[in-house]
Design brief:
about 75% helix
């Protein structure tokens, strides 16, 4: 029971982290220090996507699911939870590259808008 709950919490944290990687640059409008927290997270998220790595949270979640008597899954968090919703056919390296480019584009836009606002 506890292992299943912890695995679910990891999924929620993982999803929140992905949202922060994609949209966290906009938090720079509220507090400048968010930028210093966001940049390393965005770099990490980009590396995961472009290098095709598996985030360490995924094996941790799988081991907790197995400990709870459930089955784990192969691949990454995005392949298992996000891609089936957006791309039912599965994650390819091309799709991963597109996702990485979207993350970069959104963050360039966010930091440009923050910089432009701070400049005024």
């Amino acid at each position: 029971m506890l292992a299943r709950l912890l695995a679910d919490l990891i999924v929620l944290f993982h999803f929140a982290f992905i949202l922060f990687v994609v949209f966290g640059g906009f938090l720079g409008f509220r507090c400048r220090w968010f930028i210093w927290l966001h940049i390393p997270c965005a770099v990490w998220g980009g590396l995961i996507e472009f290098a095709g790595w598996i985030c360490p949270l995924t094996p941790w979640e799988n081991s907790l699911r197995i400990a709870a008597g459930d089955s784990g899954y192969g691949g990454s968090f995005i392949e298992h939870y996000i891609v089936p919703v957006i791309y039912p056919s599965g994650l390819t390296s091309d799709v991963q590259s597109v996702l990485g480019i979207i993350v970069i584009a959104v963050n360039i836009l966010a930091y440009f808008l923050v910089w432009k606002r701070r400049k005024k």
